[in-house]
Amino acid sequence: MIFLKTDLLIKITLVLIATTVITSCKSNINSTEDEDAIDSFTGTFAKLAKNGDRLENQDGSYSATGNEDDGTRWSCIEILDSNKNTWEVKTNSITADALGARNKDLKYIWYNSAATVPGTTQNTDCQYGNVCDIQKYANYLNANSLCGITNWRVPTAKELESLVTPHHSPSIDRTYFPHTFNGAYWSIDTSTKDGNKAVAVLFSQNGRLGVNSKTGASHALRLVGQKSSEN
Asked: In this structure, are 163 and 210 located in the same domain?
């Protein structure tokens, strides 16, 4: 009987330990992937007019035919944290102007003249219907001073990941970023394993990282910049 009781006690102890471990693991998963907790971060976003001013009405829903006065159209999103990053907002316009140039479905070739392996620059301009390179597109937005910003640049993968909202399709909060291509977005980062490839963030797969050729691949692009202290 003593051996039976001991054996039973050991089994009970093992069950309790296993239950504790499973509960702990589930708790960790919920705390890091809880959708509501991630969505609450959107309270630190500010919608900007094309001149860089914050919209007076921050509660409007985006409309392609809307306007800035009633808060139904905006050009950029400012992140109200210590970094003060501002992101461009894409459009669905197919016009041959600054709106069409920011169409969400346009793709870009990776090119960075400062990189050891720079990729291939494109001779076309960045108007709707053309495929330009990521450096040329940054220069284009800077020349147009979108949202009063002239330091637009291609973001790092880590910066892009900060926009990811898991379990959405695409994986971003479309309350603020209404027009978002459901696929890969270029980062400025070169692959650590192959200098001929660059890193992309997949907004179709909860922000998973991927790599692709600098010379043969084209992906979507969303630029980041910082407002000046005067804005």
From this structure: yes
Enter the pTM of the model. Answer: 0.79
Residue 64 located in a structural domain = yes
- How far CA 199 is from CA of 96, 110, 119, 191, in Å, comes to 29, 10, 13, 6
Q: pLDDT tens digits for 53-86?
A: 999 999 999 998 999 999 999 999 999 876 789 9
Question: Is residue 14 domain-shared with residue 104, that is, in the same domain?
Answer: no
Residue 163 and residue 172 in contact, taking contact as beta carbons nearer than 8 Å: yes
Q: How far apart are CA 113 and CA 115, in angstroms?
A: 6
Residue 127 makes CB contacts below 8 A (sequence gap 6+) with: 96, 97, 100, 101
Q: Note down the domain range covering 205.
A: 37-226
Number of domains in the chain: 2
> What is the 8-class DSSP label of residue 58?
-
